[in-house]
Design brief:
By secondary structure, the chain is of the alpha+beta class. 41% of the residues lie in helices and 18% in strands. It is built from 21 helices and 24 strands. The strands form five sheets. Strands 7-4-3-8-2-1-9-10 form an eight-stranded mixed beta sheet. The chain has a seven-stranded mixed beta sheet with strand order 13-12-11-14-17-15-16, covered by helices on one side. Strands 19-21-22-24-23 form a five-stranded mixed beta sheet. A hairpin with a 2-residue loop joins strand 12 and strand 13. Helix 15 packs antiparallel against helix 16, helix 16 packs antiparallel against helix 17 and helix 19 packs parallel to helix 20. The longest helix is centred in the C-terminal third of the chain and has 64 residues. The N and C termini lie far apart (97 Å). The relative contact order is 0.07.
Length: 746
């Protein structure tokens, strides 16, 4: 027998789940009510908290009964001058949880409010339950624009416990349909004359409000809408003012720290970035202090980023091939600061200024209204701290040193929707993940290029000041001059001894620095050489296993042939280890000799042959003139330079989309130079002035920023040089480096 169909009959405790448990805290609940006023086209919202008392100090002994009394006599009132609601709207929308009206209107293209043409924020129809997070008795008074009457709605749930399982202390089953709401209409009292809007009065408060809660609420109210005026002080086109009153006294939502923040972002940022992401063309277009710039997602510098390679490792092929993202375009404004102790000039920050900056993060706004909790200093929504921990910290700005805001729109980003609990964006469908990834990748790009140039310039300035000033020597000379004029011969002799000791110590430190550069170069080289040696060892083990199997089958002739192969492979390992040994400081030796560069080049090519084969890179050499290219130096110096050039070329060729990957090395014995060329992406013009600076690298995760710097330093000690090829020296379309082996060519 077929039973009659069933219908859902929710218990009243559903209100607790949708209000008290789903919404994070009282601040978010009040923000929801303010957002409702925004959607109602209000220009002004008055938020009053009455019966407020500061949180009890440690010395005070506050009983539960006293706390309950405070909550009972407390009251929260939210009043707006919006369009108000009719009785029909209350009956068919406000009283129907999860009403789809706004959602369906948006699907039909009706996204904006009737008067101010604001983009409607709400769509889930459960924001009203935020009131029950705050208190058990809610009185709603509203007058619709143009109406003659005022409608009053009273929701009194005080007889019930918090979970709606008891009424007046007696256990009973309470269903949602059992909760009755009183409604009445009459002449306007709260909205006299031509006034209109809505007043929500909440009593029987669930929590007592503390000073900290009030301060946090004011901060939330301050940055709820219009990031332009908050961060820059410029006036906003849409008026939406929220006034907070505590026991009748106006509480400022803008403290003096905001004025300090405006001054900081105007005067102190190393980078000030304003722009947008064009989702149709997958390109970031932005403006800096230096002018207009852009970066395409197909740019090899983007593909080199750790965050990009990590995405590929996680199996997202779209990011590496079609560049397909589920989110749409967005605009952004960022300010980056130098928190380092050695920041100088206008970029230096005081402890107070650093503290002010740490109060802010990157905020997210949708159609001019903030998406919570993004921007709270405790919230790492862009996963910057995680990326700094799992990747390379140097690839990312810290959360402390970056503030700003990102603007999205419902029109361009319909898939970026708020979670029901208002705790960020819904993660399903990939849109939120793609959006955060793009922002994180762009910030990483800024750190490794635009900010890295600032850091390189800072190092240059510091080195130039030291070299130009010769501060210690100059000061000692001045001191000796003064002492001679005073006739203090003993003091002059003492200063002379100090001067001599300083010179000896300085020479010692220079030698230590050179040794450190040598060892750093060894480390970079051994990393690659040891990798390939391990591959050869693996081959040797495979051959040895085959020999064992063949010996068992009595295949003696074949076994002998396999044994010969094993000997050859092991010989390659031995040769490779000898090459590695030449890289060490002791192997370089102090005596220089005349070397044929071609011989060393072939040796390094053999080391890199497996790498080139895996990358499907064609390797060629060419000779100019009849004379061989020679250099009076050590094997280790030439090897170090060539290893770095091979390593860089292989890395950047791996980022290009075309299959015709080439390396061409031209040996010119007559001009005493080697030109190392590839047809990769080449050196970006903005990076060109910095590629030989220490710790400057565009290679992201793979880069240390030492290779080219050390290679040039080693050559300069031998009066040789390493530089980027001029136009007439270029052999292929990508990066072209010239190694000059003529004395003084640096």
């Amino acid at each position: 027998m077929t039973e009659p169909p069933l219908s859902f009959r929710p218990y009243a405790r559903l209100l607790t789940m949708l209000g008290d448990q789903l919404i994070k805290n009282e601040r978010i609940a009040l923000v929801e009510l303010i957002k409702n006023a925004y959607d109602a086209d209000a220009e002004r919202v008055e938020l009053r908290i009455e019966g407020f008392e500061e949180e009890a100090t440690e010395e005070e002994d506050t009983t539960e009964q006293e706390s309950a009394t405070r909550s009972e006599r407390g009251r929260i009132v939210v009043r707006d001058d919006g369009c108000g609601m009719s009785l029909d709207t209350i009956r068919n929308a406000w009283m129907n949880p999860a009403t789809p009206r706004k959602y369906l209107d948006k699907k039909k293209g009706k996204r904006r409010t009737p008067r101010k043409k604001r983009v409607v924020q709400g769509e889930k129809g459960i924001g009203r339950f935020a009131t029950f997070k705050l208190g058990k008795i809610v009185t709603l008074t509203t007058r619709e624009l143009g109406a003659e009457v005022e409608t009053v709605l009273v929701c009194d749930f005080s007889p019930y416990d918090d979970d709606f399982v008891e009424e007046d202390g007696r256990e009973r089953e309470v269903f949602l349909e059992d909760l009755t709401v009183r409604v009445s209409q009459g002449p306007p009292e709260k909205f006299a004359g031509a006034q209109h809007g809505t007043v929500v009065e909440i009593t029987a408060l669930r929590s007592k409000w503390t000073e900290k809660m009030i301060d946090d609420l004011c901060r939330d109210v301050s940055n709820l809408t219009d990031p332009v005026s908050r961060f820059t002080g410029r006036s906003a086109p849409d008026v939406f003012d929220v006034e907070v009153l505590i026991d009748g006294e106006v509480k400022s939502v803008e403290d003096e720290s905001i004025e300090r923040l405006r001054w900081l972002i105007e005067e102190k940022p190393v980078l000030a970035i304003e722009g947008r992401f064009d989702s149709e063309n997958n390109v970031f277009l932005f403006q800096t202090q230096d002018g207009t710039d852009k970066v395409d997602l197909s740019d090899s510098r983007v593909k080199a980023l750790w965050v990009w390679r990590q995405r590929l490792r996680e199996g997202n092929a779209d990011a590496g091939t079609e560049y397909s993202f589920a989110c749409g375009g967005f605009s952004f404004t960022f300010y980056m600061f130098d928190f380092a102790r050695d920041a100088a000039g206008r970029y230096a920050l005081t402890p107070t200024e650093k503290k002010d900056l740490k109060e802010h993060r990157v905020y997210l706004y949708r159609d001019g209204v903030r998406v919570y909790p993004y921007g709270d200093k405790e919230d790492d929504w862009l996963q910057i701290d995680i990326s700094r921990g799992t990747g390379r910290a140097g690839d990312f700005f810290s959360n402390d040193q970056t503030i700003g805001w990102i603007d999205i729109t419902q029109e361009q980003n319909p898939a970026l929707r708020d979670k029901t609990n208002r705790e960020g964006l819904i993660e399903s469908g990939g849109a939120a993940d793609d959006f955060k990834f793009l922002v994180r990748a762009f910030l990483s790009f800024l750190k490794q290029h635009h900010y890295a140039r600032y850091q390189a310039q800072k190092v240059r300035r510091r080195a130039a000041e030291i070299a130009r000033g010769q501060l210690v020597t100059r000061e000692l000379s001045e001191l000796k001059k003064i002492l001679r004029e005073r006739g203090e011969a003993d003091a002059v002799r003492k200063v002379t001894r100090i001067e001599r000791a300083y010179g000896n110590e300085r020479r010692h430190l220079v030698r230590r620095a050179e040794m450190t550069e040598d060892l750093a170069g060894v480390g970079l080289s051994v990393e690659m050489a040891s990798h390939d040696i391990m591959l050869l060892m693996s081959r040797a083990q495979d051959i040895a296993r085959r020999l064992v199997r063949m010996a068992r089958g009595a295949g003696l002739e074949e076994a002998r042939r396999q044994a010969d192969m094993l000997i050859g492979v092991l010989q390659q390992i031995a040769d490779g280890m000898r090459d590695v040994q030449r890289l060490f400081t002791g192997g370089r030796g102090k005596s220089r000799k005349l070397l044929r560069v071609e011989v060393i080049l072939e040796r390094i090519h053999q080391i890199y042959r497996p790498v080139l084969e895996r990358g499907r890179i064609e390797y060629r050499t060419a000779k100019v003139g009849r004379s061989p290219l020679t250099a009076r130096t050590t094997d280790g110096v030439v090897m170090q330079v060539l290893i770095n050039l091979f390593d860089n070329a292989a890395f950047w060729l791996d980022t290009v989309d075309h299959d015709d990957r080439q390396i061409l090395v031209t040996l010119d014995g007559e001009r005493h130079q080697l030109v190392f060329s590839d047809n990769g992406p080449g050196i970006h013009p903005d990076d060109l002035p910095y590629i030989f600076e220490p710790f400057y690298s565009a290679k992201g995760e793979e880069g240390r920023g030492l290779g080219l710097y050390i290679a040039r330093q080693l050559l300069e000690r031998h009066e040789y040089g390493l530089f980027v090829a001029e136009r007439d020296q270029e052999r292929l379309s990508g990066a072209n480096f010239v190694v000059g082996f003529a004395k003084g060519e640096n």
